[in-house]
Amino acid sequence: MTISTPSTGSSxxxxxxxxxxxxxxxxxxxxxxxxxxxxxxxxxTHPATSAAATSAPATSVPASPASSPGAGASxxxxxxxxxxxxxxxxxxxxxxxxxxxxxxxxxxxxxxxTAHEVDDSCVNxxxxxxxxxxxxTFSEPGTSACVAGTVTLTRQGANLAYRxxxxxxxxxxxxxxx
Length: 178
Hints:
Porin; about 0% helix; about 45% strand
């Protein structure tokens, strides 16, 4: 195909060739794991976790919003306090059957409005944006090692169901206390 530019009289030629397209997953909406070898392109994926939902013990959440998080935010209930860790799996939302595991840990403080996250090479501070006695939603800022997104934590019995998403990928897992 040839495209002529009227102002200069020159022409541009576009060539068509076959292209092989590969899809790479960015590391869990939060972090990029280090490359494991010269030719590896470290990527993480996370399929949806199917932990059986169990009702969490009743916990009160202050009705008034905290001053630092966004509107409608509360503080972290005691039932979420402590360090939670586990393996999450990152995947493209449209195909969660292909995923990559990543180690992660979250530390939350009762009455606080932030959580400390370590997810492979991503170390970040999440800001509470919404909360109930059983579900907390955090905003994760983008950094050089972390992809911006939304983190949702839901109490499921003695565990936390973890989900990060940027609406293209998701990182999900079950985290244990301690």
